[in-house]
User: Fold these one by one.
Assistant:
Number 1:
Amino acid sequence: MKIGILSRKAELYSTSRLVEAGKQRGHEVKVINPLRCYMNITSHKPSIHYMGEKLEGFDAIIPRIGASITFYGTAVVRQFEMMKVYSLNESVAISRSRDKLRSIQLLAREGIGLPVTGFAHSTKFTDDLIRVVGGAPLIIKMLEGTQGIGVVLAETDNAASSVIEAFRGVKANILVQEFIKESDAMDIRCFVIGQKVVASMMRRGKKGEFRSNLHRGGEAAKIRITPEERSTAVRAARIMGLNVAGVDMLRSNHGAVIMEVNSSPGLEGIEKANKMDIAAMVIQFIEKNAVAGKTRTKGRG
């Protein structure tokens, strides 16, 4: 098979591991920077050009689209879909999961456990919004933030009100969520491939840090998850429409609650914590499922 990996940097751990796994299984693998792609959008013969050449003959692509380039990156994925190239995660599913508000609404509609969450445009009734989500301490989260950036813990109602007004003052869209104190700065990342959790890890924030992101100095370790947590992770990935996903959840007093469903989950932490070749599992999934024109949306939506 000829597999394209849409990634801005070939040397990134996840990208290089996918290249290695693909080549070990006998495939031709090419890393493509989506920002250097340009497209001929036509009715009958859509095409993608890259660094002076036309991209042809691909059986499948693996989107590794960073949050900062979601708009253009998903446009490139959509163009491949229009060319009937199988995409591991489809453009619509990537866009759906990247929109934090939309994803939470979709998960809530299907009865998935979530932190109590509020969203508002005006700051006129901030005090009531804070009451609606249960009062301080609260997590205030920018919709556009990633890797723990733009996430603030407000320990009092007054602090929450000030942070909300400050974010809205710079026109930032925010979510206000209950703080799951009992999680103790720990979360669980479940790595889902198809309809199965293939690995999981516990991430703990460094001392004094309520965020558990590995990029912020957190530590990871293998963890055994419960059947409820396993089922919740698989359902969350399916609701987003993702074949491969990193599902982040917290253990609360009322069960597992989903924090985020990531369409481009990193491999480094999960592989090292579990001592597993997850990159090879991703390639194996493509081998079993990559059929020309199988993309459900075919670039629509």
Note: The longest helix spans residues 227-240.
Number 2:
Amino acid sequence: MIYGLTASIFTKDPARAFRVARKLQAGTVWINDAYTQPTEGIWGGYKESGIGRELGLYGLEEFLEIKQVYIDTTGSLDRPHWRTVMKIDKL
């Protein structure tokens, strides 16, 4: 299959349901239910059912860019030679 947005498993054997759920390539798997989704839940699929995730913490992370910024507040330029700050005229 080329899609994998959701799947439902109906069974009386919870252990078997979890084994099957682990193997399914779907973004959301319901066991003995279908299409119940809390607003804070994660929404998104596998394969050609979209990229990324919406809602929940994983959804929020899709909109973030991570950046590190360092600042030397000591005012000292006494650094080891391998950390020498070089002037660059052109980028």
Note: Residues 3-61 form one domain.
Number 3:
Amino acid sequence: MAPGSMTRRGFLSHTATAAALAACTPLSNKVFAAEPPQRTGRPYMKLSLAAYSFNKLLPKNWTKDTVKDAKLTLDGFIDYCASLDLAGTELTSYYFPKEVTHEYLTSIKERAFRLGLDISGTAIGNDFCVATDEKRQQQIELCRSWIDHAAFMGAPVIRIFAGNIPKGDSEEAARERCISAINECLDHAAKQGVVLALENHGGITATPAQLLAIVKGVKESPWFGVNYDSGNFRTDDPYADLEQIAPYAVNAQVKVSIFTKGQKQVGDLKRMVDILKAANYRGYLVLEYEEADPYGEIPGYIDQLRRMIG
């Protein structure tokens, strides 16, 4: 049909037909929240460092009294990221004060900006599998509050977890509660412009099949995707599993170790990065160091990753 030749009656008929076809489309063929993002151009990555890399040094949920003897604070961590000439810093929620005030968030935002750093994201230790309504609502409110904090700081993404099956419960029931909770949080995330990235982190996300079962149950939204964590699968072939989830990645972390059949091994950083490149990933590549010598080893790993991403 030539441009402009469709009549009003033809247009309405065409629209009605399309709507009818959409209504008859099987659920399995519909677009879900984390259909692999359509990215243009070549793969592109920027480097960031997760505050969890200093988990043994950073005080958790601190107060003015408990922070006095801390070996490191988030201020010092941000300074350290700047000293490595990183593009970003990931500020995990655990290391914020017990009472997160507007003034504290403002100081963190200003410090990162002054040092030329993006706050590449944050993370919460939620569990959306909890069985009681009260606990479930607490976890949803935790996520919503950190969506607000992330939006204020300019952090584009929050790493979230699914959780673990409560004793005596079924995986199917736990998964349904998790999906429902993510859907509720997504409404708020969309309003605030913050992406929720579901991490492969054991529990009901221990395998790609389990993770993607949740992904495909979440309602359609551009504000949801997967956090690719290279060190969290404990399967026969974790690299093959990473290939399955990489196309859905909206945030990516690499660790220097990997577990094959549950056995800890030195990870192949280049292979981890190449998997992301093959998926045309564009975004932050966050080093999450979980070994014994962060100050001694992190600079060398950052140099390696910088060469790998080009």
Note: The radius of gyration is 21 Å.
Number 4:
Amino acid sequence: MWAVFKKEIKTYFLSPIGYIAISVFMLMYSIFFYLTTISYGSVFMGDLYYATARYGLLLIIPLLTMRMFSEERKNGTEQLLLTSPRSVTSIVLGKFLSAVAVIMVTLIFSIIYATIISFFGDINIPTLIVTMIGFLLVAMSAISIGMLASSITENQIISAIITIGVLVAPWFLVDFSSIFSSIDLIDKFLKFPSGLISISDTISLLSITIMCILITIVLIKRRKTVK
């Protein structure tokens, strides 16, 4: 798993992908920092993370995940990967954790904004930490969805569209059926910016993450068996 993790990290940062993802994140963060914090003279950062999770992740997650398996299939290197001594589980987890690592880097960079605000008022550190934990949980769920999308198609664009569609659809379909609220990641993030760790929302986000990872493993194993 760690060999795959290191390989994927190198891929992110020896190519423009990782830098573009971080740059897009920081750009979105800066925009929302002004709109939700500076313009209101507030020291509350919950709205900043909420807006970034709702809109920023729609751009960052597809960018990080669309090539995970789609590129391997398109370039014909997936067969080499599947016939390597590494297990499918370790391959999937290595790719997943590498994308999570990129998100964690962006979260570390986001502390810059908290530092700026600290010059103008006191920041509730525990609330900020809880908010960042919630953001990471949402990002992990989104990454697992994007990874699953990448595993079912060799076209990176289609993978990105599927990921965005799954993330956005619950916003509009929840009015038709409450079942869609169960996959609305942003709805499960709402309590975290207030400093509240919701056990039910945490379990839901982790369940979505684990479920998508397991489905991805099953799909990849099935292709490995066929080949």
Note: Residues 2-226 form one domain.
